[in-house]
């Protein structure tokens, strides 16, 4: 037991060092929180920016396609249902930041720590597996999206100059390696705010172009049930695309996987769970409003032939400069979103390495960055430099090998929504409030778990089927258009 406690204390001290850039023993009492870490400065608006950066990402671009597969009634209904469930379960999860649930309860710095406190070690391991699969997969998905947007910029200019048949290509990579050296979540607020602004910008451009197309009378045919069997697709294709569309919409609404990590940036007053619930409400209302407008106007503009990616599927060709601007905004946004999702992976690996090799200079030493006689408020750590660079390179290679936009989003939505957005928050809520499983409330919560589990299975099946079909129809390292 003593060894375990010693390791935990070391990890806390290492986290203090990484986040402050100085030895924790030099921090005065007035500059620390109740756990000895540097005083947190996050507020509702910074937490909202983190959430919006993570949530309004790749998902918003696929909603017109999703609406086309589901139709008006099911598309709007499913999107609203996912948003309501996400807000409810995220509020449950926000209450699990401290254990026990009180202002003096012990802080849980990560999602896995919260699961461990309420559900035990075995469930923590299961949660960790899902979390790292989801976050790693999301970085691959965001790399695909950002790369496709860069390709679209090149193609847009080529199309404008030489017609719609000119082949053009451009890539993405070095930027994420550089930005990944930002030490932790607490240093990311400025990047999240910039990224959130970018997400509003490109969503608004896509929405405006779709709205213009609709009111000009150039919109395409839509139906209450989406693509038609026998006209657009076969019966089997309809079922699979419905499953993938559901997965895309689930992905667009899922951010609980990093909620606790975001909550750990909030200042202590007002209580973190109350501030986080406000941030949840702001982010969900904002994102759902944008989702409905982009999905509905995108579907109205393109009809049942809506492209998988509204801004890079070239449903729009002109004005080419505005489409270029939108795709630049996508790239900037996804650079930030990538970091928001990757930071929990980086933090866990680096904390483990510090615990495993506490005396290693390669692992633990921070080298302040100097240019001439000027010292910058930034340091280099060799483990961070090599480990994060390797992660970005591997994620980029996997993104190049599996370039399937909608299928990747659907699979990520399936993996993340059922377990991380619904199951673990519900189970922690039951444990926290000692709810009897055979009570009316307990049965209702278990029914919610079951329904979302079945939805996740269906979405994952559709995504895997689509990826299999795509691999047979195209080659790795080539984006499927």
Separation of the first and last Cα atoms: 56 Å
- Categorize the overall geometry: globular
Query: How is the largest sheet built, in terms of strand order?
Result: 1-2
Total individual domains: 1
Number of helices: 16
CATH architecture field = Up-down Bundle
CATH class annotation: Mainly Alpha
Mean pLDDT, as a whole number?
A: 77
| Percent helix | 55-70%
Strand content range:
under 5%
Low-confidence stretches: 1-26, 162-171
How many E-type strands?
4
- Largest sheet features: 2 strands, antiparallel
One letter per element, helices H and strands E, the order comes to HHHHEEHHHHHHHHHEEHHH
Structural class: mainly alpha
CATH topology: Amino acid/polyamine transporter I
CATH superfamily: Amino acid/polyamine transporter I
Write down the Rg: 23 Å
Pfam family, one: Aa_trans
Main location: membrane
Membrane topology: Multi-pass membrane protein
Protein name: Amino acid transporter transmembrane domain-containing protein
What topology emerges from the helices and strands here?
Blueprint lengths: L1 H19 L23 H12 L2 H4 L1 H32 L3 E2 L6 E2 L3 H9 L1 H42 L11 H6 L9 H27 L19 H19 L5 H5 L8 H31 L17 H37 L4 H4 L2 E5 L2 E7 L1 H20 L3 H29 L6 H34 L8
Antiparallel strand pairs: 1-2, 3-4
Helix pairs in contact: 1-12, 2-8, 2-11, 4-9, 4-11, 4-15, 5-6, 5-15, 6-12, 6-14, 6-15, 8-11, 8-12, 9-15, 9-16, 15-16
InterPro entries: AA_transpt_TM
Family: Belongs to the amino acid/polyamine transporter 2 family. Amino acid/auxin permease (AAAP) (TC 2.A.18.1) subfamily.
Subcellular location: Endomembrane system
